[in-house]
Structures
1.
Amino acid sequence: MNFDYDSEQNDLREAVRGLLARAYSDSEQRRGVVKADPGFDEKTWSRLAEMGLLGLPFAEDDGGMGAGPVEVAIVAEEIGRVLAPEPFIETVVLAGGLVSAVGTAEQRAEILGGISEGSTIAVFAHAEPRTRWAATAREVTATQSGDGWTLTGVKEPVPSGARADLLVVSAAVDGGTGLYLVQGDAAGLTRTAYRTHDGTRAANVRFDGTPAQQLGEGGDQTAAIERALAEARIAYGHEAIGAMDTALRTTADYLKTRKQFGVTLNKFQALTFRAADMYVSLELARSVALWASMVQDAGGDVVAAADRARLQVSRAGRHIGEEAIQLHGGIGVTAEYSVGHYTSRLIAIDHLLGDGDWAAARLAAKVADYETVDPLGAPYAG
Amino acid sequence: MNFDYDSEQNDLREAVRGLLARAYSDSEQRRGVVKADPGFDEKTWSRLAEMGLLGLPFAEDDGGMGAGPVEVAIVAEEIGRVLAPEPFIETVVLAGGLVSAVGTAEQRAEILGGISEGSTIAVFAHAEPRTRWAATAREVTATQSGDGWTLTGVKEPVPSGARADLLVVSAAVDGGTGLYLVQGDAAGLTRTAYRTHDGTRAANVRFDGTPAQQLGEGGDQTAAIERALAEARIAYGHEAIGAMDTALRTTADYLKTRKQFGVTLNKFQALTFRAADMYVSLELARSVALWASMVQDAGGDVVAAADRARLQVSRAGRHIGEEAIQLHGGIGVTAEYSVGHYTSRLIAIDHLLGDGDWAAARLAAKVADYETVDPLGAPYAG
Amino acid sequence: MRLQLSPELEAFREEMRTFFTTQVPQEIRDHVAAHRELEKDDYIRAQRALNAAGLAVPHWPVEWGGKDWTPLQRHIWREEMQLACVPEPLAFNTSMIGPVLAAFGNQEQKERFLAKTANLDIWWCQGFSEPDAGSDLASLRTTAVRDGDDWVVNGQKTWTTLGQYADWIFCLVRTDPGAEKKQRGISMLVFPMDSPGVTLRPIELIDGGFEVNEVFFEDVRVPAENLIGEENRGWDYAKFLLGNERVGIARVGASKRMLAQAKQHAQEITVDGRPLADDPFMARRIAEIENELVALELTALRVVANSADGKPHPASSVLKLRGSELQQAATELMLDIAGPLSLASFADGGSDVPDWARAATPHYLNYRKVSIYGGSNEVQRTIIAGSILGL
Amino acid sequence: MRLQLSPELEAFREEMRTFFTTQVPQEIRDHVAAHRELEKDDYIRAQRALNAAGLAVPHWPVEWGGKDWTPLQRHIWREEMQLACVPEPLAFNTSMIGPVLAAFGNQEQKERFLAKTANLDIWWCQGFSEPDAGSDLASLRTTAVRDGDDWVVNGQKTWTTLGQYADWIFCLVRTDPGAEKKQRGISMLVFPMDSPGVTLRPIELIDGGFEVNEVFFEDVRVPAENLIGEENRGWDYAKFLLGNERVGIARVGASKRMLAQAKQHAQEITVDGRPLADDPFMARRIAEIENELVALELTALRVVANSADGKPHPASSVLKLRGSELQQAATELMLDIAGPLSLASFADGGSDVPDWARAATPHYLNYRKVSIYGGSNEVQRTIIAGSILGL
């Protein structure tokens, strides 16, 4: 049992941090990038590919690096640290994760290879206007037509849904929820993009008898979706940890330098104590996020671990995001200063894939089934 | 619409405050009184009677003063201010309230007269070891025998249950819950008294074919019990307001005088801000408590108003009770200093007749039935 | 103590409710209800509708259009206005410079400005805060130096709300740099925003909107008659102005409106085919916020019912603090009801996400300001600890 | 990063679990589980059972009975002890004076005290806090004046936990009133509680129990050889002692035990004929506390896994703060599960209220102390803000 990165992991962390520090050296640089579609920097995306990060978790046979969840977590945390808007988790962890989990050898080779090279941006089109953080699909349906399939219905909001070259789509089908591949230029596909409050892009994606290819061998894929969503929740948790870390550090620096009534703000104990409480929230959330990645690595119950991480990170994100602004005062609510963007992104992460109350309700439903939690034992140790 | 006491109410307040200030001039005086059974001062009880306070809400025809809920609230708040342990709410508001609401003219005259004179201490024996803040009875049953009744079962905890001269007992009977009168010296009555953490007394009261007289004309009295409990919740709310007020004032005084690191504690902003938050909790709770008494006075929906007061006062009581100790430090947890006793009593009040979560659940069950709350309109204005 | 309103006040409340819900253009009230940004013209039309009925400046002296109402009447007027989603009369005009002019301006200034201020013929903005003078306002640096019949103003203001719409600005300037107490060297000047040397820079907020500005002054010449009251007494006028209508900031009516909307939207959102409103946790969360709002409203009523004598009730300092917390709780509730749909913040045509859900996150982010402006919650706690608890 | 314990550590954990659940008298562990006050003899029997197996002072130097364990082994040892409701070895002996004697005592003192201290043949109590020196310990006033071969001690200590059972006291005294820095004039003396001039006054706590005392010294003569370490270096020893085993104070195992009991009792309490555990709000409240406990336990593991190098991990300052908050949350949960039954706090025979419900309120009240003693939560926040955030 240990929480230390090995030297390769530390090297990876430094390399990613260096790359992103150049791409997003300050908040104005990011503001410029997210102003224009697609809401991220294609050049940075290529650099992430060149560094091998876009194939990080995929098997080497599928053109990936064969790295584990801890490496993915390291990248996600560095992304959060500078609010890099590139759709790493959407493409690599979520869409890529589904393809590598259920795709045929052929699909894996083609799609994961393209993702790894940076030539294919794939996203998971799953959320529907009238469902709420479910692992199943209701409003988009799949119909067999000849040896192919067609999809009909609406997915929204789909992060980077308009920019994506390839959509992995969940759809209701006899016997449950299936997964399908839709090309960005497919017929009967209408995508309406818009900016989201955190500077990224999402889209309304409308299927109207749109031709699609079945991902994998078919059958009900709800379990695979639940697992992929859990792994994405864990990765988003690490992105949030990176964001909270920067938000706290930015706030502490501000308290040390900003003067009111002739003294710097860190002379006001009520403010420094609140900063201390932010640190407590951050470190507790960090512990659970790191643990969840280790559970995934150990082959334990990743869904249960993701719920725990989700709850802890959500509570910490609200607390730190709101306090970071409040402790800054007026400048904290301006788009010209960095900290408000961190609050905005933390709120976005919280509403992707299930918020804290959602996770708490899932944990509450099971709380009577066991006496105590042993985070190093079953069902987490695998 | 106004929140001011009239001059008579101000006089009443001063008179009660004066009487109780003599009886409980400091926390040691109270400690002495509660050490010995019955846990309160019989002499103070007589003085309350002489001042007419024990008959305050009863009709003049029944030997009372015919005063309203606001006058009762004034007495309750003064009791809370010094933690007077006399069973005013238990005897006058709860037991007396039930007798005056459902008793026959004869019962009212006899019992309420005795309560008003201070010669009869009556309490409501209602809580049962296996029920939780219900308005009905389950474990004590009533059986008709000849022209009288007998009761069997257990009530616990019953505040002042062993000292009481007369018990008003709720019991399950065909068609619902009935109310019965049992004399303290009745056959087949076993009462086991014990101290409670707040210095008062409660008892296990066991009925074994105990002869009882029916209160009022019989039939299901659940509605009358629900109403009496609501009126008692409001009165306890005012007792809690008085207790919180003293706890906050004591804490503020301590911060002004206690020195650490060479300065008084009120130089530590983190502490003074927390005292400010205590004040906010207190004043918001006070507003709802006063309002609930006005609703009762106006003949509005006293049960709904009591739930609102219960929730607000409960949250404030936890907050203020816990912070009062924390801001004091070690001395706050000693029985030799006053503030911890206030915390203890606030917790006791919170668990009598339903706590904050209990009230919140009741309010939540109805929240979809209306659009907005108008505290000056229906159903509160009567 | 009495719960009910007197028949007169009941009638008054009914009169207000009827006026606001029938005489103020529906589409403007719909904008407010949907938390959409208002156009300049929306503000003007709404205020003129009120002013035409004598309901824009009831708290002013009667001779300048005031109503001589009790604090309770003013409270009812404001609450009903908020419940009806009527945009409140521009605070800079009606709660700030107007009362200052009425109290401290000379007769000529009153005649020149007050009627146009009430009718929003002149749109005023506030020039108080500076980059290095926020909560610590008295350390402001903008200077006005007397030169012949003019004051020459140089410096910078910030957080000037809706300055982009303003015709005139009322401004705190340092006229005596040598004053022993820095509060004593400050004066209040008013001048047109199109005066030579005035430039305005909008500040984008995290919700993507533009409602505050930086205002720069470079050798702006202000005629001496534009000094309000006495030279170097500006701090007193500022305190008078900021203390004005402290009660209004509880914004109970606005929060009640938001909570009512939240209840309705929780009925529209479905979870596994059942309305979110049926989720016991959601119902409980709504019930807890609602009870806090009841407590706040009753506290506001206690304050207005007792402050007839003029001096504010001690509990009034609670109103801004808890009022802002509950406004934020309501916006956060709405955000969490929208849930996954809250991502679609700037969706336009071609989206299946309802308007209210699109607006939820920007509104939540925008409302972080309410615990900061108008005396931050930290300032409020300082007042409570100091003035009330004597700490 | 790796989740699983090594096979060796798994075996170690199993060994601890087996020992604690089989070799420590069941009735003593039942007392702990029920939050009943322990008799002096219970502490002694439990600690001697541990010491006989070499499990009382694993963190001491090996030559004095220590185990040379890793921080993680010590963590597992402590957690398993708490989960098994084993009373922990008396902190004053094993975590406080013992390590100080081992580190700073002379050879004669080590031989005289350490073995008896490990075996609780000597029961130690702590003489640090004074009425006017709480969080501000360095301002203590108790004096020791050299007189021939003795120190003569006068003054008063307070908050002396379980002093009524103690054989000896370790005491901070001022030996150089003239020292320029008040920290520099303090020394550490040890002496028997039955020395002439020592009197003890128990302090009743709000739960009705007696666990702390005032201790008065009137011309108490202490032989010079009872000075620990160097004269006027006592402050360093005190800091060493108080910094010792900071990790242990998270008390995760104890809180997990309480939460498990709470779950069980929520099954026993019925509401309208159904178990309280079925109430979604109760289940959710338990789940939220439980998740916070998981987070705390993992943070404690991060700290011990990384502090092999000796210097404490920054996050360790979180442990006392959140650990005490969660202990209090657990006692409050138990209290609210007991609900109306929690009134019966001092019921005895003839009550139908179960023991655990009787104990709930006194336990809740008693646990208000955990956020105050051993460095209050305010002190912890000061450390975090200062040492970690540099504020």
Note: Chain B touches chain D through 50 residues (CB under 8 Å).
2.
Amino acid sequence: MKSDRRLVRKGSLEKLFEVLKGDNRQVYAPFSRNGRTSYRKIEKFSDIATDYIQTTQSSKEVSFPRTEKILDYSKNADGMSVKGIEPDQIPQIMLWGIRPCDAMGIGELSSIFNWDYKDEIYNNRLSKVTVLGFSCSKTDEYCFCTSVGGNPGNTEGSDILFTQLGGNGDYLAEILTEKGEKVIALSPELFEAAGDIEKEKFLADVPVKFSHKEIYGKLEKFFDSEEWVGQSLRCIGCGACAYVCPTCACFDIQDDSHGKLGSRVRCWDSCGFSLFTLHTSGHNPRNVQSARWRQRIMHKFSYMPERLSVYGCTGCGRCSRACPADMNILEHLTSIKEAAL
Amino acid sequence: MTNNLYMPYQMKVERITYEAPGVKTFMLRFVNEDDQNKFDFRAGQFGEYSVYGVGESTFCIASSPTRKGYIECTFRQTGKVTNALSDCEEGSIIGFRGPYGNTFPLDEWKGKSLLFIAGGIALPPMRCVIWNALDLRDNFKDITIIYGARSTKDLVYKHELQDWGSRPDVKLITTVDPGGESPDWKGEIGFVPTIVEKVAPSSKDTIAIVCGPPVMIKYTFPVLAKLGFSDENIFTTLENRMKCGFGKCGRCNVGKVYVCKDGPVFTLAQLNKLPDEY
Amino acid sequence: MDELIKRAKELLEAGTVKVVIGYENGSADKTRALFAIEPKDADKLIFDSRCVMNLATYITKAEVKGKGKMAITATLPVMRAIIQLASEFQVNDSNLLVLGITPESKMIEFKDLAEVEAFVHKYTIEIEAKYSEKLEKLDKMTPSERWSFWIEELSPCFKCYACRAACPMCYCHKCTVEFNQPQWIPVPSHDLGNLEWHMMRAIHLAGRCIDCDACYNACPLGIPLNLLTKRMLIDAKEHFGGYQPSIKADHLMSTYKPDDKDNFIM
Amino acid sequence: MAEFEPKIVAFVCNWCTYAGADLTGTSRIKYASNVRIVRFPCTGRIDYMLLVKAFDEGADGIIVSGCHPNDCHYTSGNFHARRRWIMFRSLCDFIGIDIRRIKFSWVSAAEGAKWADIVNSTVAAIRELGPYEEYQKVAKKPVKEVING
């Protein structure tokens, strides 16, 4: 649908926040703590962090929590009773202040959970989320959304996209979906008519560093390259990159038991861990860090495009910012682009 | 929730058979009759078996799809879940979800001879196909089974081996590794590849299905090639670590191929195209 | 650090070592580990105040160790880690050469690890004032307040294990957290799983932690988990007379004194 | 509501305290029945994680007991254990685990009466403190449905 463009006064944002918070809805927004920003449930408008280029953690945790119950069980005298999770236990969530790259990531994550088998647990949770995106006016050297099909004012994935018109100005609101319209309906008076606004001039400038098609083509023949070994030598094999990534979906399934009661949970896992693919026999198909690093890159830029027709990277640059060993994905992709076959 | 992919069927352990040291076969029946009526699978598929409070573990369905009303699985006690399964008694309730993965193309094999080569604990995935083929015996020409284990006590399905051995329409060759024989052992002594070479089954109109430890498979493929089997006519299964079973959890892939969805059954021709990461 | 570059080149050219581990410029204003294998790679070596990552974490990494004899640019915390690792038989003179950097930023090349130890022993491990203050503040709280503090502080932890990966002392191929028979520590990251993981890590580092803050620096969520190990260090000082890594001496937690404190035992 | 009965897990060594507890019984000394005893070869074998697990599974208090110094069946197991207890106790205190709920003692095979005293006094102390709800709230807290609030 053609997006409806409205103007929201700077002072109206707080009013909108108050409206959104009510009536069995929760607002999740960026919150700063220990110098890091992540999404959490916000009660007070003033708690929302504003001074960030990109949040430390992606908003993935809202639709794909790091630990998520998939069933409950209890042992009793008659045997076993097992119960699934009811969708109405999940509240309506307003996801406030996410960047266009994160919003694009929602689509990529959804493709993983919906190719072939449809993951209803994920879909249910996502159906309760309304995405209120905020365009980027600032960028840093880690950003590369424009190289992977995004841009600082990308509307993809958002229900409403807000773009601030200048440093301290009002906001252009692009209402993109039905969910977005429902938000407007909650307090239409906050959304004024917008004149002709050239949104692009208020957006950050993110230079294109490569084209993802170029990387895709290269990776097809790159599996046995020595480049992986060189790149991964300083990788220390933690899961930080995967856990802050908006599109990494690898998970583990674990049982959590307390006496006769317990639940089965789905929790995040990372292809960077050495035991990720370890067989019970002791055999490990990816037994060196270079194989694990290769899996991370290949999965995002070769396997996903081929199998799911989407890329597994939104160019948010979080993995590079979070990496304790300074593995920089942009730099590594660029060197793959330039490497001789 | 209507469609929770992770929700297992409740299964009752109806019969436990001790197969070999640390190896048991469970016969499982659906607690809910509805589930049983809806359930259907094909030879080669696998499932996720779970003990509540402990976790899930992946292995194949070892019974034939032609035998309705129950499924069987055979597992060796090695990890957390298989140990907990092993502690189950007859009557216990466990979880099972599946079936997942692709299947052995038995329909395409109609009118051909079948050669089964298995080693050790790898007979269970093949047992499913063997019984499936035997139940539809008229569809196939010769059926040959070559099965080897470390020692006589490690041979699984001892009763069925006797059964197959006594059938006129099956040629069964069992073997144990040198030193693994008991005084009354009447089968062959030697490693599986050696025995295959010795038996030298004909490759004419024949499909070879090979399952076993990596080292056995590695040395069996060249023998089969020498006997004239084409890569397209050699089938095997890959076993990778899995959590979900349906292409989401991200750990079983070999390159772009997901063992849980595109496998576990592969022809040698397909395997040759995969990167060396399994 | 021309001296460092020159020496690294010599070592690589002569084949004395196969790899020199040091720092190079990284992205933004960060520095990162450099593995110089060809002599020309050594041109990228740098050293300045931004170089805080503990490089000793790499000397137990199979992919690095597998290259052959290593030389390492080692600041004081790195040297301490090396000595502790040597005392646990993870490195020795035959596979490691130490190019030390003194707190005054002077390079000194050590003949062997015994010399490194002697150098390390010139300094004691002191808790920085800003941390002492935090610890004191915590000590003044009631146990219940501390409990709430830690549950809250640890709640963001998503168990990426960056703290473990960055720690030079966490070199086990299979960590306690990965043992599942029995399942000592719940795998999912929830309050209990996070609490037990960090408790376990702190206690396994008691008497081994050289206080380099690598775990804290690595944590993508900025959790102050180094307070736990610092507390262990203070206790070691109070009860066992202090900790100093040493190749030959007994490990603090695998030895005892007949007169260890026992006023809490009935 | 019925009076709170503390659940107490005692981790004891085989050679001294377990024999001591046995003596308490054969001497017909009556003592509180709130204790579940877990027998170990030596206090040196008692991993601190076991104590944490006891709290996980619902214990309100813990007793750890072994041979007196110099009496260890394996010469020095209890000395090593003592060092670990010092550190463990301090860490627990720092994390905010109520260390009044973890009691350490030396009880020899001849001290049947002392064992009864320790159990009785521990039970009384824990009864005073009440159930360890603070810990149980965390241990049994259902997995968070959505991200941290």
Note: The longest helix of chain C spans residues 191-205.
